[in-house]
Amino acid sequence: MQLLSETVQGYLANSSMIRRMFEAGIELRKKYGPENVYDFSLGNPDLPAPARVVDGLKAFAEKADQPFAFGYTPNAGAPWAREALAKWLSEDQGVSLEAGDVLISVGAASALNAVLKAIFNPGEELLTFAPYFVEYGFYVSNHGGVLSTVPSRPETFAPDVEALEKAMSPKTRAVLINSPHNPTGAVYTLEELKEICALLERKSEEYGHPVWLISDEPYRFLAYDGIEVPSVLPLYRFAVCVSSFSKNLSLPGERIGYAALSPLLENRAEFMAALTLTNRILGYVNAPIVGQHIMVAALGASVDVDIYTRRRNAMAEVLAEAGYEFNLPRGSFYFFPKAPGGDDKAFIAALTQECVLGVPGSGFGCPGYFRLAFCVDEDIIRRSAKGFAAARRKFA
Amino acid sequence: MQLLSETVQGYLANSSMIRRMFEAGIELRKKYGPENVYDFSLGNPDLPAPARVVDGLKAFAEKADQPFAFGYTPNAGAPWAREALAKWLSEDQGVSLEAGDVLISVGAASALNAVLKAIFNPGEELLTFAPYFVEYGFYVSNHGGVLSTVPSRPETFAPDVEALEKAMSPKTRAVLINSPHNPTGAVYTLEELKEICALLERKSEEYGHPVWLISDEPYRFLAYDGIEVPSVLPLYRFAVCVSSFSKNLSLPGERIGYAALSPLLENRAEFMAALTLTNRILGYVNAPIVGQHIMVAALGASVDVDIYTRRRNAMAEVLAEAGYEFNLPRGSFYFFPKAPGGDDKAFIAALTQECVLGVPGSGFGCPGYFRLAFCVDEDIIRRSAKGFAAARRKFA
Question: Which of A276, B48, B68, B158 has the maximal Cβ count within 10 Å?
Answer without folding.
Answer: A276
